[in-house]
Amino acid sequence: RKEDSFMIRKSDLDTNGHVNNAKYVAMALEYMEETQNITSMRVDYRKAAFYGDRIFPVIYEEDNKTIVELRSEEEEIFVVVEFEKK
User: How far apart are CA 28 and CA 59, in angstroms?
Assistant: First the structure.
């Protein structure tokens, strides 16, 4: 499923001007209904996002996993976060 897009803020950036890796995870967690049931997480960083970029989240549910892709307007993937649940 596709969710509403949002803009990268200055507070999302690290000292190199890219989105901080922990911020990507925090963004992905916003699309989890329950976080206390997460047993593992895998993060695949693909492309750096910068201030002013627009993020287009796409969420996939399968069995005991939720996969969150944070994409650019051009459909390029910034990061894929996979959460495994109990």
Answer: 9
pLDDT > 90? residue 34? no
Task: Report how far residue 47's alpha carbon sits from residue 49's, in angstroms, rounded to the nearest whole number.
Answer: 7
Tokens of 62: 């399968």
Q: Where are the alpha helices (DSSP H) in the chain?
A: 21-29
CB 14 within 8 A of CB 24: no
The Cα 33–Cα 18 span in angstroms is: 27
Residues 41-75: pLDDT tens digits? 999 999 999 999 999 999 999 989 999 999 999 99
Task: Choose among 27, 72, 28, 66: nearest CA to 46.
Answer: 72
